[in-house]
Sequence to fold (428 residues):
Amino acid sequence: MPPQAHGAIEDRDSRRRQRSETLQRQYVAVTVTLAVLVLGIIFLYGHLMSRSLSRQTLEDALISGKAEAEQLAKEMSDGQGNNVALYDVVEKRREVLQKRLEGLARKLVFTSITVTDAKGHIVYQADINSREMVPEQFVKKDLDVGTGLSDSVVRETENSYQIPAPIGSVGEVVLTVSKGQLADRISKVRKTLLHQTIMVAGVTLVTLLVAFAFVWHLIQRTRRLEMQRREAEEMAALGALAANLAHEIRNPLNSINLNLELLEEDLEGGVVEATTSLASTRKEVGRLARLVTDFLTYARPDSMKSEPLRVDELLRETVTFLKPEARRAGVHLRVAGSLPDVRVLGDEGQLRQVVINLVLNAIQALEGLPAEHRVVEVSVELDEEHVHLVVTDRGEGVAEDELRKITTAFYTKRPGGTGLGLAIAERV
Fold:
């Protein structure tokens, strides 16, 4: 293959790889950007929900405390006149207070109940739970009542909320809500929401990755199909061009070859240099004719026919046909052992072309080697399902990194080679 053509193919492949790498980088960048945006939206939503739920939890606790305080005040004032001492009311309703204490203890956020008379003197006080002091910074940041509940409903201290409820005109009940216990409850709500947000983000991220991987697979598959379609169109156009060129080139080559034969006959016994020059010219004309034929066969292969044929007859006829070529190259071509009488379905012409190409490649590989190495053998190997046509030579072999390249069209290391023989065999 000419160096210019080989370089053009390498440049084309290099451009394709660059386009593929550029597309892959762009796709990865878009995927990462979209994933970051989606995750950012999820976590922003989680943050806003956390703030909303924290606020809702606080307000629910205070409203619930107000209802509890009012219910307790109502129970203590039922059936009592305004002239009854508050202390006597508390003593008579101690059982009611005890039940209320037990119920409030289960709600965890209430710390004490205080009953005061109209002058503010404490008549009764019971601690529901004992909690540690809450840091001032945490209280102001996370447990600020704000404007949701008025001061007439809730009185706020450093570490608690006090919810008053009047007992007629004789006093009031004050239910104390611990900011520390509210902070614990809000913290649990936030942790639960955080875990759920992380789970949703993880599932979303995995789904996105799977979706993008699937889309990337479809893009790559579409690109491969598109490349195959283009290559098929190029090969079809190349085949049509090759057919026209073959017809245009073959006829002049045949005429030139015939005239050279006649001229060689006229010069028999004449000038040795002229005879040698003619023989060399005929050889080059023959090589050019084979190149045109190989190019046409690769670019525009014939449709495959399926017909029964005998493998042993095919090999013997092919070996007989190629023996003159082998003798001219100083190579001993032979059939190894006895060939089994095996029949297969296939295209006889194309299978013959495969064997010819393999044998010629083996003959050319032995050029320049000692006589004992210039041997090519053709044989048949059978297994349960297949018939193997085997061509072996005694050459130096092929390097491991070259094996995957030898069937590539136009790849050759032999000076003057076309690089199409094994490519045609592989295609058939």
About this structure: The longest strand covers residues 110-117. The chain has ten helices and ten strands.
